[in-house]
Amino acid sequence: MNINISYRLAAMLVAGLVASAGAFAADATSQPASASAPATMPRILVLATGGTISGTADPRSAIGYNSGNVKGQELVRGVPGIEKLASIDAEQISNVGSQDMNDKIWFQLARRIQEAFDKNEADGIVITHGTDTIEETAFFLQNVLRSNKPVVLVGSMRPGGTTSADGPNNLYEAVEVAASAQARGRGVMVVMNDQIHAPRWITKTNTTAVQAFASPNAGVIGYVDPASVRFVAQVPQAPREVLSLPADAPLPRVDIVYAHANMDGRQIDHAIADGAKGIVIAGEGDGDASKEALAALDRAVKKGIVVVRSTRVVSGFVNRNVEVDDDKRGFVVSLDLNPQKARVLTQLLIANGVTDAGKVQQAFSGTW
Ligand code: ASP
Protein backbone atom coordinates (compact mmCIF):
# COMPACT_ATOMS: atom_id res chain seq x y z
CA MET A 1 0.00 0.00 0.00
CA ASN A 2 1.61 3.21 -1.14
CA ILE A 3 0.23 5.58 1.42
CA ASN A 4 2.33 7.34 3.94
CA ILE A 5 1.23 6.17 7.38
CA SER A 6 3.23 7.97 10.04
CA TYR A 7 0.75 8.34 12.87
CA ARG A 8 1.99 7.60 16.35
CA LEU A 9 1.51 4.13 17.79
CA ALA A 10 -2.06 3.53 18.81
CA ALA A 11 -3.76 0.58 20.37
CA MET A 12 -7.09 -0.73 19.16
CA LEU A 13 -10.03 0.64 21.06
CA VAL A 14 -11.28 -1.88 23.51
CA ALA A 15 -14.93 -2.78 23.50
CA GLY A 16 -15.60 -1.29 26.93
CA LEU A 17 -14.29 2.13 25.95
CA VAL A 18 -16.35 2.25 22.82
CA ALA A 19 -19.46 1.02 24.59
CA SER A 20 -19.58 4.33 26.41
CA ALA A 21 -20.42 5.93 23.09
CA GLY A 22 -23.86 4.36 23.39
CA ALA A 23 -25.06 7.42 25.26
CA PHE A 24 -24.65 9.43 22.07
CA ALA A 25 -26.32 7.04 19.66
CA ALA A 26 -29.86 5.82 19.30
CA ASP A 27 -28.77 2.23 18.70
CA ALA A 28 -25.04 2.46 19.09
CA THR A 29 -23.18 -0.82 18.80
CA SER A 30 -19.50 -1.28 18.40
CA GLN A 31 -16.86 -3.88 17.89
CA PRO A 32 -13.46 -3.95 16.28
CA ALA A 33 -13.75 -4.54 12.56
CA SER A 34 -10.14 -5.59 12.15
CA ALA A 35 -9.07 -7.43 15.27
CA SER A 36 -5.67 -8.35 13.82
CA ALA A 37 -4.60 -4.86 12.71
CA PRO A 38 -1.09 -3.93 13.88
CA ALA A 39 -0.93 -1.31 16.63
CA THR A 40 1.13 1.03 14.45
CA MET A 41 -1.81 1.93 12.25
CA PRO A 42 -3.88 5.11 12.37
CA ARG A 43 -7.11 4.69 14.30
CA ILE A 44 -10.18 5.33 12.21
CA LEU A 45 -13.66 5.44 13.70
CA VAL A 46 -16.42 4.66 11.20
CA LEU A 47 -19.76 6.24 12.13
CA ALA A 48 -22.57 4.69 10.10
CA THR A 49 -25.76 6.65 9.46
CA GLY A 50 -27.46 4.66 6.65
CA GLY A 51 -27.97 5.56 2.99
CA THR A 52 -27.50 3.58 -0.18
CA ILE A 53 -24.00 2.61 0.90
CA SER A 54 -25.77 0.56 3.59
CA GLY A 55 -28.46 -0.65 1.21
CA THR A 56 -29.07 -4.03 -0.36
CA ALA A 57 -30.91 -4.81 -3.57
CA ASP A 58 -31.75 -7.57 -5.96
CA PRO A 59 -28.56 -8.14 -8.01
CA ARG A 60 -30.41 -7.48 -11.25
CA SER A 61 -31.81 -4.12 -10.32
CA ALA A 62 -31.23 -1.16 -8.02
CA ILE A 63 -34.93 -0.43 -8.10
CA GLY A 64 -36.87 -0.94 -4.89
CA TYR A 65 -33.88 -1.25 -2.59
CA ASN A 66 -33.83 -0.35 1.09
CA SER A 67 -31.13 2.03 2.19
CA GLY A 68 -29.78 1.33 5.65
CA ASN A 69 -30.01 -2.48 5.64
CA VAL A 70 -26.37 -3.17 6.43
CA LYS A 71 -24.80 -2.02 9.68
CA GLY A 72 -21.47 -0.19 9.83
CA GLN A 73 -19.44 -3.15 11.11
CA GLU A 74 -20.63 -5.38 8.25
CA LEU A 75 -19.89 -2.61 5.78
CA VAL A 76 -16.29 -2.41 6.93
CA ARG A 77 -15.86 -6.17 6.99
CA GLY A 78 -17.15 -6.38 3.42
CA VAL A 79 -14.33 -4.27 1.98
CA PRO A 80 -11.33 -6.42 0.97
CA GLY A 81 -7.99 -5.06 2.15
CA ILE A 82 -9.40 -2.22 4.27
CA GLU A 83 -7.83 -3.74 7.38
CA LYS A 84 -4.40 -2.99 5.92
CA LEU A 85 -5.11 0.75 5.93
CA ALA A 86 -6.01 1.38 9.53
CA SER A 87 -7.17 0.05 12.83
CA ILE A 88 -10.91 0.46 12.34
CA ASP A 89 -13.75 0.59 14.78
CA ALA A 90 -17.38 1.07 13.76
CA GLU A 91 -20.41 2.49 15.51
CA GLN A 92 -23.98 2.85 14.36
CA ILE A 93 -25.31 6.38 14.82
CA SER A 94 -28.50 5.94 12.81
CA ASN A 95 -29.78 3.86 9.91
CA VAL A 96 -31.75 6.20 7.67
CA GLY A 97 -31.90 7.21 4.06
CA SER A 98 -30.40 10.67 4.11
CA GLN A 99 -33.69 12.16 2.91
CA ASP A 100 -34.61 11.56 6.57
CA MET A 101 -31.44 13.09 7.98
CA ASN A 102 -32.34 15.52 10.76
CA ASP A 103 -30.99 17.82 13.45
CA LYS A 104 -31.13 15.10 16.11
CA ILE A 105 -28.78 12.84 14.16
CA TRP A 106 -26.57 15.80 13.25
CA PHE A 107 -26.16 16.69 16.92
CA GLN A 108 -25.41 13.04 17.83
CA LEU A 109 -22.79 12.90 15.09
CA ALA A 110 -21.18 16.19 16.05
CA ARG A 111 -21.02 15.28 19.74
CA ARG A 112 -19.63 11.82 19.11
CA ILE A 113 -16.94 13.13 16.75
CA GLN A 114 -15.95 15.90 19.14
CA GLU A 115 -15.76 13.40 21.99
CA ALA A 116 -13.67 10.95 19.97
CA PHE A 117 -11.17 13.67 19.12
CA ASP A 118 -11.16 15.33 22.56
CA LYS A 119 -10.48 11.98 24.23
CA ASN A 120 -7.96 11.02 21.56
CA GLU A 121 -9.92 7.91 20.63
CA ALA A 122 -9.35 8.30 16.89
CA ASP A 123 -6.97 9.90 14.41
CA GLY A 124 -9.70 10.29 11.82
CA ILE A 125 -13.42 9.68 11.33
CA VAL A 126 -15.29 8.21 8.36
CA ILE A 127 -19.04 8.77 8.17
CA THR A 128 -21.08 6.52 5.90
CA HIS A 129 -24.06 8.54 4.69
CA GLY A 130 -26.75 8.71 2.03
CA THR A 131 -25.86 10.86 -0.93
CA ASP A 132 -29.05 12.96 -1.03
CA THR A 133 -28.06 15.26 1.83
CA ILE A 134 -24.39 14.35 2.36
CA GLU A 135 -23.34 17.88 1.36
CA GLU A 136 -25.53 19.42 4.07
CA THR A 137 -24.22 17.13 6.80
CA ALA A 138 -20.62 17.79 5.74
CA PHE A 139 -21.20 21.55 5.78
CA PHE A 140 -22.99 21.43 9.16
CA LEU A 141 -20.17 19.44 10.74
CA GLN A 142 -17.48 21.68 9.32
CA ASN A 143 -19.15 24.65 10.96
CA VAL A 144 -19.55 23.15 14.43
CA LEU A 145 -16.58 20.83 15.01
CA ARG A 146 -13.64 22.12 17.01
CA SER A 147 -10.93 20.03 15.40
CA ASN A 148 -9.03 19.89 12.14
CA LYS A 149 -8.54 16.14 12.27
CA PRO A 150 -9.89 14.47 9.15
CA VAL A 151 -13.60 13.71 9.03
CA VAL A 152 -14.45 12.03 5.73
CA LEU A 153 -18.06 11.55 4.63
CA VAL A 154 -18.73 8.86 2.04
CA GLY A 155 -21.72 7.36 0.27
CA SER A 156 -22.53 5.30 -2.77
CA MET A 157 -24.91 5.54 -5.68
CA ARG A 158 -25.51 1.81 -6.07
CA PRO A 159 -26.60 -0.43 -3.20
CA GLY A 160 -24.66 -3.51 -2.19
CA GLY A 161 -25.43 -6.61 -4.21
CA THR A 162 -25.92 -4.76 -7.49
CA THR A 163 -23.60 -5.05 -10.47
CA SER A 164 -20.59 -2.77 -9.94
CA ALA A 165 -21.73 -1.53 -6.56
CA ASP A 166 -19.57 1.51 -5.78
CA GLY A 167 -19.87 1.38 -1.99
CA PRO A 168 -16.91 -0.88 -1.18
CA ASN A 169 -14.43 1.12 -3.24
CA ASN A 170 -15.76 4.43 -1.94
CA LEU A 171 -15.50 3.22 1.66
CA TYR A 172 -12.00 1.88 1.06
CA GLU A 173 -10.92 5.25 -0.35
CA ALA A 174 -12.62 7.21 2.44
CA VAL A 175 -10.64 5.25 5.04
CA GLU A 176 -7.53 5.65 2.93
CA VAL A 177 -7.97 9.45 2.92
CA ALA A 178 -8.87 9.69 6.62
CA ALA A 179 -5.82 7.58 7.52
CA SER A 180 -3.38 9.41 5.26
CA ALA A 181 -0.77 11.83 6.48
CA GLN A 182 -1.82 14.18 3.68
CA ALA A 183 -5.31 14.63 5.17
CA ARG A 184 -4.09 15.74 8.58
CA GLY A 185 -5.30 19.22 9.48
CA ARG A 186 -7.84 19.39 6.67
CA GLY A 187 -10.98 18.77 8.71
CA VAL A 188 -14.23 17.75 7.02
CA MET A 189 -14.19 16.37 3.47
CA VAL A 190 -16.36 14.21 1.20
CA VAL A 191 -14.96 11.29 -0.80
CA MET A 192 -16.97 9.95 -3.75
CA ASN A 193 -15.84 8.10 -6.86
CA ASP A 194 -12.08 8.74 -6.53
CA GLN A 195 -12.55 12.44 -5.78
CA ILE A 196 -12.13 14.49 -2.59
CA HIS A 197 -14.43 17.49 -2.19
CA ALA A 198 -14.72 20.39 0.27
CA PRO A 199 -18.00 20.83 2.19
CA ARG A 200 -18.52 24.38 0.97
CA TRP A 201 -18.25 23.51 -2.70
CA ILE A 202 -19.57 19.98 -3.20
CA THR A 203 -23.05 19.41 -4.56
CA LYS A 204 -24.97 16.50 -6.02
CA THR A 205 -25.34 17.08 -9.75
CA ASN A 206 -26.79 13.79 -11.00
CA THR A 207 -29.71 11.76 -9.69
CA THR A 208 -28.37 8.29 -10.51
CA ALA A 209 -24.89 8.31 -12.05
CA VAL A 210 -21.89 6.98 -10.13
CA GLN A 211 -20.16 10.27 -10.93
CA ALA A 212 -22.88 12.18 -9.10
CA PHE A 213 -20.93 14.93 -7.36
CA ALA A 214 -19.10 18.04 -8.45
CA SER A 215 -17.67 21.19 -6.91
CA PRO A 216 -18.73 23.55 -9.71
CA ASN A 217 -17.16 26.78 -8.50
CA ALA A 218 -13.81 25.47 -7.38
CA GLY A 219 -13.23 21.91 -8.49
CA VAL A 220 -12.17 18.99 -6.38
CA ILE A 221 -9.64 19.45 -3.59
CA GLY A 222 -8.00 16.12 -4.27
CA TYR A 223 -7.96 12.69 -5.80
CA VAL A 224 -7.75 9.23 -4.31
CA ASP A 225 -7.21 5.79 -5.77
CA PRO A 226 -6.13 2.59 -4.09
CA ALA A 227 -2.49 3.59 -4.49
CA SER A 228 -2.44 7.30 -3.65
CA VAL A 229 -4.03 10.31 -1.95
CA ARG A 230 -3.33 13.64 -3.67
CA PHE A 231 -4.54 17.05 -2.57
CA VAL A 232 -4.56 19.82 -5.14
CA ALA A 233 -6.28 22.57 -3.10
CA GLN A 234 -6.94 23.68 0.46
CA VAL A 235 -10.27 23.13 2.20
CA PRO A 236 -11.96 26.49 2.85
CA GLN A 237 -12.57 26.58 6.59
CA ALA A 238 -15.62 27.74 8.53
CA PRO A 239 -15.87 30.82 10.79
CA ARG A 240 -15.35 28.80 13.96
CA GLU A 241 -14.70 31.83 16.14
CA VAL A 242 -18.39 32.71 15.94
CA LEU A 243 -20.26 29.45 15.51
CA SER A 244 -20.62 26.63 17.95
CA LEU A 245 -22.92 23.65 18.31
CA PRO A 246 -26.08 24.91 20.01
CA ALA A 247 -27.03 23.19 23.27
CA ASP A 248 -29.98 21.35 21.80
CA ALA A 249 -31.67 20.35 18.57
CA PRO A 250 -33.69 21.42 16.69
CA LEU A 251 -32.01 24.29 14.91
CA PRO A 252 -34.13 27.41 14.30
CA ARG A 253 -36.58 27.10 11.46
CA VAL A 254 -35.29 28.43 8.13
CA ASP A 255 -37.41 27.82 5.04
CA ILE A 256 -36.22 27.57 1.44
CA VAL A 257 -38.57 29.05 -1.17
CA TYR A 258 -37.92 28.11 -4.80
CA ALA A 259 -38.32 30.98 -7.29
CA HIS A 260 -39.94 30.50 -10.69
CA ALA A 261 -41.62 32.37 -13.54
CA ASN A 262 -45.02 33.80 -12.71
CA MET A 263 -44.23 33.85 -8.97
CA ASP A 264 -46.33 35.60 -6.36
CA GLY A 265 -45.45 36.15 -2.71
CA ARG A 266 -47.72 33.59 -1.13
CA GLN A 267 -45.16 30.92 -0.24
CA ILE A 268 -43.03 33.58 1.42
CA ASP A 269 -46.02 34.93 3.34
CA HIS A 270 -46.79 31.37 4.46
CA ALA A 271 -43.23 30.96 5.72
CA ILE A 272 -43.60 34.22 7.68
CA ALA A 273 -46.95 33.14 9.11
CA ASP A 274 -45.56 29.69 10.00
CA GLY A 275 -42.86 31.22 12.19
CA ALA A 276 -39.74 30.92 10.06
CA LYS A 277 -36.78 32.71 11.63
CA GLY A 278 -35.03 32.83 8.28
CA ILE A 279 -35.96 32.50 4.60
CA VAL A 280 -33.58 31.45 1.84
CA ILE A 281 -34.82 32.24 -1.63
CA ALA A 282 -33.53 29.80 -4.26
CA GLY A 283 -33.61 32.60 -6.76
CA GLU A 284 -33.44 32.64 -10.53
CA GLY A 285 -30.09 33.49 -12.12
CA ASP A 286 -28.00 35.56 -9.73
CA GLY A 287 -30.59 35.26 -6.98
CA ASP A 288 -33.46 37.13 -8.62
CA ALA A 289 -37.13 36.84 -7.84
CA SER A 290 -40.31 38.56 -9.05
CA LYS A 291 -41.41 41.96 -7.76
CA GLU A 292 -44.17 40.26 -5.75
CA ALA A 293 -41.71 37.80 -4.20
CA LEU A 294 -39.28 40.61 -3.33
CA ALA A 295 -42.10 42.60 -1.75
CA ALA A 296 -42.95 39.55 0.38
CA LEU A 297 -39.28 39.25 1.37
CA ASP A 298 -39.39 42.92 2.41
CA ARG A 299 -42.28 42.02 4.70
CA ALA A 300 -40.15 39.22 6.16
CA VAL A 301 -37.23 41.58 6.90
CA LYS A 302 -39.62 44.01 8.62
CA LYS A 303 -40.63 41.17 10.94
CA GLY A 304 -36.99 40.48 11.88
CA ILE A 305 -36.63 37.41 9.67
CA VAL A 306 -33.19 36.85 8.14
CA VAL A 307 -33.55 36.84 4.33
CA VAL A 308 -30.82 35.26 2.20
CA ARG A 309 -30.75 35.36 -1.59
CA SER A 310 -29.25 32.20 -3.07
CA THR A 311 -29.77 30.67 -6.51
CA ARG A 312 -31.37 27.66 -8.10
CA VAL A 313 -28.49 27.70 -10.64
CA VAL A 314 -25.85 25.07 -9.94
CA SER A 315 -22.77 27.27 -10.34
CA GLY A 316 -21.71 30.88 -9.95
CA PHE A 317 -22.02 33.46 -7.19
CA VAL A 318 -24.90 35.58 -5.98
CA ASN A 319 -23.39 39.03 -5.53
CA ARG A 320 -24.77 41.96 -3.56
CA ASN A 321 -26.70 44.84 -5.12
CA VAL A 322 -26.61 43.69 -8.74
CA GLU A 323 -30.27 43.56 -9.81
CA VAL A 324 -31.62 43.74 -6.27
CA ASP A 325 -30.74 46.55 -3.86
CA ASP A 326 -29.69 44.35 -0.94
CA ASP A 327 -28.37 47.28 1.10
CA LYS A 328 -31.71 49.08 0.96
CA ARG A 329 -33.84 45.99 1.50
CA GLY A 330 -31.73 44.44 4.28
CA PHE A 331 -31.05 41.18 2.43
CA VAL A 332 -28.04 38.89 2.66
CA VAL A 333 -26.52 37.17 -0.40
CA SER A 334 -25.24 33.60 -0.26
CA LEU A 335 -22.32 34.07 -2.69
CA ASP A 336 -21.30 30.49 -3.63
CA LEU A 337 -23.46 28.70 -1.05
CA ASN A 338 -26.37 26.84 -2.62
CA PRO A 339 -29.79 27.14 -0.96
CA GLN A 340 -29.50 24.01 1.16
CA LYS A 341 -26.13 25.06 2.58
CA ALA A 342 -27.23 28.70 2.92
CA ARG A 343 -30.09 27.34 5.03
CA VAL A 344 -27.71 25.44 7.35
CA LEU A 345 -25.44 28.45 7.85
CA THR A 346 -28.43 30.73 8.51
CA GLN A 347 -29.78 28.25 11.07
CA LEU A 348 -26.45 28.06 12.87
CA LEU A 349 -26.01 31.84 12.87
CA ILE A 350 -29.48 32.43 14.29
CA ALA A 351 -28.89 29.70 16.89
CA ASN A 352 -25.68 31.52 17.87
CA GLY A 353 -27.53 34.83 18.20
CA VAL A 354 -26.31 36.35 14.92
CA THR A 355 -29.29 37.90 13.10
CA ASP A 356 -28.06 41.34 12.04
CA ALA A 357 -27.95 41.33 8.22
CA GLY A 358 -24.47 42.84 8.12
CA LYS A 359 -23.04 40.23 10.47
CA VAL A 360 -24.85 37.40 8.69
CA GLN A 361 -23.37 38.69 5.43
CA GLN A 362 -19.89 38.65 6.94
CA ALA A 363 -20.35 35.00 7.88
CA PHE A 364 -21.40 34.12 4.36
CA SER A 365 -18.44 36.03 2.99
CA GLY A 366 -16.02 34.47 5.45
CA THR A 367 -14.89 37.92 6.61
CA TRP A 368 -15.42 37.98 10.34
N1 ASP B 1 -31.81 8.24 -0.87
C1 ASP B 1 -30.49 7.74 -0.62
C2 ASP B 1 -29.94 8.50 0.55
O1 ASP B 1 -29.60 9.63 0.44
C3 ASP B 1 -29.65 7.89 -1.82
C4 ASP B 1 -28.20 7.51 -1.66
O2 ASP B 1 -27.70 7.27 -0.59
O3 ASP B 1 -27.49 7.50 -2.68
O4 ASP B 1 -29.86 7.95 1.61
TrEMBL record:
Binding site for substrate: S98, T131, D132
Keywords tagged on the record: Hydrolase, Signal
Keyword Signal: yes
SMART domains: Asparaginase
CDD domains: L-asparaginase_II
PROSITE patterns attached to this UniProt entry: ASN_GLN_ASE_1 (PS00144), ASN_GLN_ASE_2 (PS00917), ASN_GLN_ASE_3 (PS51732)
Name the UniProt record assigns to this protein: L-asparaginase
Keyword Metal-binding carried by entry: no
Residue ranges constituting the L-asparaginase N-terminal domain according to the UniProt record: 43-234
Gene Ontology biological process terms from the UniProt entry: asparagine metabolic process
Domain of life: Bacteria
Family that this chain belongs to: Belongs to the asparaginase 1 family.
Stretch forming the signal peptide: 1-25
UniProt xrefs under InterPro entries: AsnASE_II, Asp/glu_Ase-like_sf, Asparaginase/glutaminase-like, Asparaginase/glutaminase_AS1, Asparaginase/glutaminase_AS2, Asparaginase_C, L-asparaginase_C, L-asparaginase_N
Lineage: Bacteria, Pseudomonadati, Pseudomonadota, Betaproteobacteria, Burkholderiales
GO MF annotation: an example: asparaginase activity
